[in-house]
Amino acid sequence: MTRKLTNQELKEKANLIRLDIIKMLVEAGSGHSAGPLGMADIFTAFYFNLLKHDPKNPQWEERDRLILSNGHITPVRYVAMAHAGYFPISELKTLRKLGSRLQGHPERKRLPGVETTSGPLGSGLAQASGYAYAARMDGQKFRVYCICSDGEHDSGNHWEAVLFAGKNKLSNLTAIVDRNNIQIDGYTEEVMPLEPLRAKYEAFNWHVLHIDGHNLEEIIDAVNHAKAVFEKPTVIIAHTIPGKGVDYMENDPKWHGAVPGVSDMPGEPSKEKQTQIALHELRTLKGKIKSEHE
Amino acid sequence: MNKKSFSTNKVATRQGYGEGLVIAGEADEKVVVLCADLTESTRSILFKEKFPDRFIEIGVAEQALATIAAGMATYGKIPFISSYAAFSPGRNWEQIRTTIALNDVPVKIAGAHAGLTVGPDGATHQMLEDIALMRAMPNMVVMYPADAIEARKATVAAAKNGKPTYIRLAREKTPIITTEKTPFEIGKSHVLLNPSTRSADAQGRLEQSRKATSSGPHGDPQVAIIGAGPLLYEAVVAAKKLAESGIETVVINSHTIKPIDEQTIIKYAKITGAVVTVEEHQINGGLGGAVAEVLARNFPVPQEFVGMPDSFGESGDPDELLEKYHMKSADIIAAVKKVITRKNS
Fold first, then answer.
1. What ipTM, to 2 d.p.?
2. Which CATH number fits domain B190-344: 3.40.50.920, 3.40.50.10140, 3.40.605.10, 3.40.1190.20?
3. With an 8 Å Cβ cutoff, are A161 and B99 in contact?
4. Which of A32, A100, B220, B264 qualifies as a FRET site for B117, CA 20 to 30 Å off?
């Protein structure tokens, strides 16, 4: 078990994680930037406060299960895991390289601590629901968390799982939706409108919470609140800013599947300067990432 | 080989699956069954009645069927997922690939009502591409039982193999051509009929047939007929008729299509020098293709393919359809004669 960090420590940790995300993506030369940066606070909260886990014993039976549905944001998970002690931070440099345990999209069989293989969207919540159902059959006390994107709410498989978890009142399951409003082809409300998302989940018999996904107190409160909801699964709709922390990336769909330092983009710093600016901005933000309401 | 003994006892392979689920469920409490609104017709109902707490209804949602089961298997359960082959793996192939095969968790996929013989339902439900879909997938075991007894054995074996596994099942009642004593091992095919023994254990005379081995010489087999699934009955009928006209063949039940039993295929290709494959599936990518891959790499011999010739089916009675699309014993006989001509030319 790792020590739970205080709020200020969590903020500083989240910033270190953002720095390492940029470094590893630049080293890899491909991958996704916006999602991992946007979810850095939530992953920090999980790995350094919320999860019952043991980085030295990833198969510990009583651990909480953190299932990542939108596998493309796995860099943030890898960095959080490395900082938590699952593997050496130096291994982050191997991301997406031949022979690496850090596959471009995460694979359960390659890296202990990764609960499921994911990447193709829309399937994670169903796996988490099956996991939670099976665990409840055996009277297990651990919780199952599923982190998913807003874009994958376009898929039928996701809503099939929402139906199933609602029907079976899987209160040991909490879903966290990265509501960053972008997907590859643009803004979610233009590609395929999801709103009213809260009403949709409520209609499927879920308990719904809205939070600012960059406010660590809100993240921790919401996840703990969900533990006290016994009659339904809970979904936490976490409003995040894609690319959070790097000004030129924030809220821009073109950084969904791109990394700094690889190519010039219209209206952006030159590829030579992208990495430098990103790292500089993150350093100056040390411990200062704020939610919109703080 | 007594034709009458085949036709008197007909049971659908899906029934064998249902019975196998109960046996597997009794043996291991980790076994659970999930079904997508087809509990009666996939015979999952037998398990549901026995173990209601371990049966999970998913509704008409085959992608959820696969992925929820993947989650349960990742936790530690042994889930069997029941639907029609047209929908599972037809509709949920990517979910099976990513969350079951690549994830390498022991979900057992039962594709019922596979093949042309689902008959009147027509082409939408006549799944003829599932072997191709599943045998291309790493980590996946693919089985196609010949009759209800073998389907029961395959189901029980699948519960224990620790691997992602596909079991192909049919709707129609089909002749029982194996016995309780017929050996069954995943990956090990079984010689149903061999002229050197001049008998088949299909008639419950395994011991007798073994004794007969030493009783007298027979003609060397000229062709190896390699099949899987209920059409093996047609293969045996064809072999018997061919024997009456002096053409000896070996009939091999390749119930496991992946991993395929290479040794047995090569052994009989060397003995006979010609192969006919038989399956109720597209010729493209099916058992015939799997056999051809083994032969091409090891011991190329002429091969003829009995199966669906790159076509969809249509409504009709099962027998009418098998006749129209050339999968009856007469078609197997024609294929055997053709391959002998090719071998000798």
1. 0.93
2. 3.40.50.920
3. no
4. B264
